[in-house]
Amino acid sequence: MKEPLKQLVRELENAQDPEAAATMSAYMRDQFPYLGVRTPVRRQLLKAFLKEHPPVKEWVPLLWEKPEREYQYCGVDIAESLRKKLEPSDIGMIEACIVSRSWWDTVDLLAANAAGFLLRKYPELKTEYAEKWLQSDNMWLNRTAILFQLHYKEATDEALLYRYIREHASSGEFFIQKAIGWALREYSKTNPASVTAFIEQEELKPLSRREGLKWLMRSGKMQ
After folding, report:
1. What residue stretch is flagged as signal peptide (predicted)?
2. pTM of whole model > 0.85?
3. Which of 21, 32, 142, 212 could hold 181 in an S-S bridge, CB 3.0 to 4.6 Å?
4. How many CB atoms lie within 10 A of CB 140?
5. Contact indicator for 112, 147 with CB cutoff of 8 Å
6. Domains assigned to the chain
7. Which residues 6+ apart lie within 8 Å of 87 measured at CB?
8. What is the pLDDT of residues 112-162, one digit of tens each?
């Protein structure tokens, strides 16, 4: 591991709390071990560390190799801080993180931020990567394909979003149904009439439909 990162590891280890670690791991269904460093403390430590050591993208995969989950959270934050400096070739690194130590807490942030930023800045990547993610046997890549436009608002490629949703609308996977609903809910804030019509016309799973309609129902924007 690079020398600066060893300093970050030491600081996080010094802040660990075994009792909190057990609670955090249980909350995440014991998918990963934790140090027990709570989010405000972790972010404060990382912010101070990055002031001393400007981040480089090579740190992200190195942090992904560490078993404790806080290191992946730091990797996500570093990728986000560097997203304007990411190049098309970095999409492979982001993809590798999505399919490694995968769970919603890291996948969703990478999908909507680093991956979404790269595919918006370099739309030619959609043909190779977004389409591959859509057709992948990896559920987390499917979820990424559905969610990468989450923050696009008026820049959303509506036809592509709806096509991707239709591709997985019959999925029995909870995380896919939830992603469909989330993507529709966010886009409904930009184009409520279109989303209302889509939900009414398509055969969506009840969870996807319910999640997709939440903002429309709450805001009274049902068209």
Report:
1. none
2. yes
3. 212
4. 23
5. yes
6. 1-85 (1.25.10.90), 94-148 (no CATH), 151-223 (1.25.40.290)
7. none
8. 999 999 999 999 999 999 999 999 999 999 999 999 999 999 999 999 999
